[in-house]
Amino acid sequence: MNWGDAPAWAAFAVSLGAIGISLKARSDGKRSADAAEKTAAVAEETLAHQRTADAVQRAAEEEANRPRVVLAFEHANKAKWQLVNYGTAIATNVRITEAVAAMHGAWPENLTLAPGEVHDFLMAGSMEARIPSLIRVVWDGQEEPVPLRVPPRIG
What ranges do the domains of the chain cover? Predict the structure, then answer.
């Protein structure tokens, strides 16, 4: 039996092995490329999510640090009451939204309270004009009435 040139057959066998290895390497390379694409897509989504979360956190911090008006009524003594601005912003044009029969004197027009500032006023209850438990106020930039609790009278 004549098989011909033995080195040629050996080269043929090696080339078949090389073809098999190259096909395996190609499929491994394709799988690796697919995995890299998926990893890149996940990384891109994660980065977009992180940017969104950072923007939301930044907006929340800015909102929390924004100057605010925080008004409260306090009883000073006898018929003397106070409206106090505990906030960090100026309350401009503070107005009471409904008449308070127990209040003596007119509420000042264009009342402005800086942070920490106090406005004194007189209010005394009677059988006909009780001291309210809530007084609603508005100011420039806050047109929706804010109900402020009127604390119980001391002494």
Answer: 1-66, 71-149
